[in-house]
Amino acid sequence: MAFSVVFQTALMLALLSWRTCQSEVLAEYSPLTPEGLNISVSSALQHLHFQWTVHKLPYQELQMVFPIEISRVETSKVIWMGNYSTTVKQDQVLHWSWESELPLECAPHFVRIKSIVNDARFPELSFTSNWSSWKEVRAPTPEQNHWLIFPRNKLVEEGSNVTFCYNSARNPGLSCYVESALIDGEQLDSNLFTFTLTNIPFIRTQGTNIYCGVNHTLKDGVVLFVSKVLEEPKNFSCETQDFKTLNCTWDPGVDTGLGYNRQPSQQYTLFDSVSGKKKFCVHNNWCNWEISQDLPATFNFTLTAENYLRKRTVSTAFALTDRVHLKAPESVYFKNVSATNATVTWKVPVFRNYVTLLCQIELHDKENVRQEHNVSIKGNGEFLFSELQPDTEYVVRIRCASARHVWKWSKWAAATLVTAEAAPSKALDVWRIVKSNEGLHNVTLFWKPLSKFHANGKILFYNIVAKNLDKKSELKLLCIPAPTNGTELTLDQGSYQIQVTANNSVGPSPTSEIVISENSGNEEVEEEKINGTKDGFLVSWNPRYGDRAGHVVDWCEHPQNLHCDLQWKYLGSNTTSTVISSDAFRPGIRYNFGIYELSTDKTAYLVEKKTGYTQELAPLDSPQVAVANLTPHSFTLSWKDYDTESQRGFIQGYYVCLKSNSTECHPDSVKEGLPDKSTCCKHDISNPKQKTFLVKNLQPESFYEFSVSSYTSAGEGPNGTFTKVTTPDGRSYMLMHIILPMMLCVLLIAVVCYWKSQWVKEKCYPDIPDPYKSSILSLVKSKENPHLTVMNVKDCIPDAIEVINKSEGTKVQFTGKPLTESESPRPANLYLLPAEDFSGLAPCISFENFTYNESACDSGSCAHIPVPTTAPPCQLGMLASPDNSLTSLENTHTHSQGEIPAGEMNMNYVSQLASPMLGDKDSLLINPPEPVLCSEYKMQMAVPSHLASPVLSE
Amino acid sequence: MRAPSMRAQRTRRPLLSLALGLLLLSPAAEAAVAMRRCSSSYTQLLGQLRSLAHLMKDTSCLLEPYIRLQGLDTPVLRGFCTECSGAFPSEDALAALSRLAFLQTVSATLDGVLQRLAVLQQKCLKAKDLPEFHVARKNIQGVRNNIYCMSELLTNGSETPEAPLPGTEAPLRPSAQDTFQAKVEGCQLLCGYHRFMGSVEQVFEKWGDSPSRNRRHSPRRALHKGARRARPSRRVKKPVPRGQLSR
Question: Fibronectin type-III domain location, by residue (chain A) (predicted)?
């Protein structure tokens, strides 16, 4: 039993050994079988490179097919099957590559191959070999113990697809991210996961970060470098400036360089297929190519842009003479420069002087291109400019190109040309202002400076010649240095011809002529208003004189300024209107225009004057108003100083605004609200020349406020501040106007009376009265009763003498008592009183006896005269104003004379009474003076008894 | 024992000056200018050092631009970045040093940072990519110049020089060859640099207003502490545990 088991085992081993040997022998000797299969790995490219041979080919070459199988992870998982067909030569080493979409580091790969002879030429050789044995391939991973994600540092182009794998064998729960986005992996094996990124964008030159971690703990990461797609160079061209070097330029497009030296910027190579030369370009947008002088001057260039991932090429072919871009011309000079001609010369730095060049010449002044010329030259160039402007700075520009083919013009070469001066070519534009003064003409001449075009050089001075047309021999010469634009001449009243020329270093200009006539400056022309617009003034006029050479309109552009900037405009003889416009015209400014006719002898006559505004504005200020003739019922407003000429529009009238306590307005005014919500009565004065206004129908002792504002067509000026006026009282006004003159008259009379007091005294109450000399008596006598005579004392029989004791009562009687020594003299009045009863009112005549009054005045008691309570009213009146005693006296006297009928007056003697001075007149009236113990002498006077009774009866 | 020690100190002082001088001779012209213009004011120098340290600890002047440029501004990557490089001395280690040793340590560390920045800029970036790198290098040069001047001042003030932390003598070198690794290591380097400057500022803040020594650590202790605490810096040459991806 044991033997049999051993035998069977030995037999089996022998059979196996034989079988193995047999197969090896068969394989070794089988023809056309792939042999020496060698597989290498390119991890970066994820390529498997196959290399094998086929021995013992029966023919020199044979068409064969090699089926290939590739498995991943294990041999049974075939991931790719394919055939490689090729013509196999004897002893040829065959190569074939396979690119894996999965990084080769992710998993082991297994490869096998077999061969099939499939050559129609040799049908008898139809043969299929056996599969080779599986060959395992593993990509090298230097630190495979640490790296979890593959591929590492992969470089792809933007828009590519990349498959990543990661191994989670040692990190369960491993999660992977692209930038910050979590990626779901597809499980390939138990621990092997893959994910594919498609259409990958370019994010940054530093690469896209792909990393894995567990619970936000980083485990591994890779950088995927995404390159921008290399662009084809644009605008590739070559040119030469000197026929020695070609300069090729292009637009490189985006830079595909990446960080960490993963991919440098794209490199450029220039290849000329004509010469077979190649050059690596240092710069990314230009490259120089040396021209071989011994080769034909034709080129066929290919520019190749290349990075790690891609190549791009562009080509250009040309003849050298078609790509000439010359350097700018040199040595540009001028010769034979005159006022109107000049010759320019230049050189073109060309290597080959036999090349014909085309040059463009431009002549610029400061504004425009004045001349353009095309010149064909060989070598040096020369060109004559003509018709140049004297004393003008020109810039001459020259550029050249190959005349055979204008590829590009050279850069401009420029030089400055200044022509020589010539005499001014145009007469000055002259105008004048003439003012007559004391038999003289003050002529202010103005002229406009010549334009550069006409000046032909720098104007140095102006010559002025004034010829007296009446006295031909009389000349006035003036030389005004430039740049003065005017001068003043003082001429007599005769006619003068004034000639003005401008002079530069070469000579004078044509003469300008103007004539000043005798009447110049004395023209009386009425001013007419015109309406302007923002575009100017339309000035029109009527021709006045038949024989005329033209017209001139003059005006001041800045009438407010001291120098008004006189402007003028010459117009044709048939012109009757023109538009005067100026940028200097401003709204609200009054412009005055003078229109002159020019006679054939150049004499200017003022024919019309216009004034107007381009745009009228409301007045800027209001009149300053004065109040006059203030009465209780009216006052007058006046603003005669208000200047209407300087306003911002034609003054059309004035508004007078009157505020009062009255709620009603006068019919010729309208009520208007004011900004302060008060109202006023507004009077419209539509006559701008009326500068006074009578405000009437006012109430005395009333308060009024007024303001005056002017207005133009554009509106009303600012409301002036209200001025306050209070009308006076009517009575006091009357008093002031009646009583004051009366007072003055009285005063005048008093003065006269005082002046004549001596005369009155002598006439009326001399120191020692002489009844016979009394004028009163004579007066009475002469007027009333010529039979009256002076009563003689002797003829009087005293019937009673009463001693008056004043303290005893108020009764006053005439008593005869002599003046004692102790009693001071008192002022005494001489009254013409009724003898019997004077208690009633009666007219009387009283004279103050100053003879007895001296001491009393010394005591200061003159002003207070004691009077009995029964004193008549005229006495009171006198007492009320003792200073006016004389006046009162006179009044009384006059009154008496006037009221006492002639012939009825009787004269009584009244004693001269010395009364003590007590109290003032008021107290005197209220409290009668106390009688003093004194005796008074009363001169008794003869009083006609009939004199009192009629008065009493009145 | 004292005599040799004093002799050692006497010889060590010029050596230190020489070492610092050589250290700061890069670039030579700037160092020469710095030496000629050294301020003799301790307060002024200290103020400048504090200000510079305060300025350089700010992550917005270098780290943040770097993170944005490299696309590391994601939670996972930022978190990894802020695990700053351990190749820098800790604040405790710096605080334990004498002032001269501290200055020398800071200078040497910043020298290493300069080299790392140069490599980082050369390998990873184009000159136009991150202008903040240029500014940072200028600031580091400025700090080192001021450190030189301060060291001169302290040396003249008879403060005894001591050995710097051993870990900082070797330059900080980039370890990663992989691009992603280089990215995140650069990030950690900058993070460590800012943190280091924060520590430097803290130590400068503790310095008194007088150049006279106000605290004294034995050189041995400082050396010991510095060596012990600077141990992580030795790891710079090896894969850095804190900075390397944990697998």
Answer: 328-422, 426-523, 619-730
- Chain B stretch 95-124, residues whose beta carbon is closer than 8 A to a beta carbon of chain A: 123-124
Smallest CA–CA distance, residue A140 to chain B, in Å, is 15
Q: What angle do CA A525, A526, A532 make, to 5 degrees?
A: 115
Tracing tokens 């005063």 back to the chain, one arrives at A747
Closest CA to A851 of A826, A886, A873: A826
> If you count them, how many residues does chain B have?
247
B45 CA to chain A: closest CA distance, Å?
39
Residue of A nearest to B125 (CA): A259
Judge residue A948's burial from the number of C-beta atoms within 10 Å of its C-beta, 0-12 exposed, 13-18 middle, 19 or more buried.
buried
Residues of B in contact with A146 (CB under 8 A): 245, 247
pLDDT averaged over consecutive 10-residue blocks of chain A (954 residues)? 46 43 43 86 89 86 92 92 92 92 90 89 83 89 73 92 90 89 88 92 94 90 95 94 90 92 92 93 94 84 95 94 90 93 89 79 90 90 93 93 89 94 92 85 90 90 90 81 90 88 94 87 85 89 82 90 86 90 90 90 88 91 87 88 86 89 80 81 89 86 88 86 83 74 87 80 68 58 54 60 51 38 40 40 42 40 38 36 38 39 41 40 39 41 41 34
Amino acid occupying residue A942: A
- Of A89, A49, A82, the closest CA to residue A65 belongs to A82
Which amino acid, residue B10? Answer: R
Contact A290, A244 (CB under 8 A): yes
One DSSP character per residue, A286-298 reads: EEEEEPPTTS-SE
C-alpha angle A890/A894/A897, rounded to 5°? 140
Q: Report the candidate in A184, A291, A195, A299 with the shortest Cα–Cα distance to residue A237.
A: A299
Yes or no, beta carbons of B183 and A209 under 8 Å apart: yes
Among candidates A389, A382, A359, which has minimal Cα distance to A372? A359
Residue pair A804/A790 in contact (Cβ under 8 Å)? The answer is no
Whether A218 has its CB under 8 Å from any CB of chain B: the answer is yes
Contact call for A218 and B245, based on CB within 8 A: yes
Chain B closest CA to A214's CA: distance in Å? Answer: 10
Q: What is the DSSP string of A721-790?
A: PPEEEEPPPHHHHHHHHHHHHHHHHHHHHHHHHHHTHHHHHHHH--SS--GGG-HHHHHHHHHT-TT--P
Q: How far is A74 from chain B (nearest CA, A)?
A: 27
Which one of A179, A213, A216 has the shortest CB-CB distance to B71? Answer: A179
CA–CA distance, A884 with A877 (Å, rounded to integer): 9
Token pair, residue A762, equals: 């002598």
Query: By the 8 A CB rule, do A212 and A219 touch?
Result: yes
Which residue type sits at A194?
T
Alpha carbon B43 to its chain's center: 21
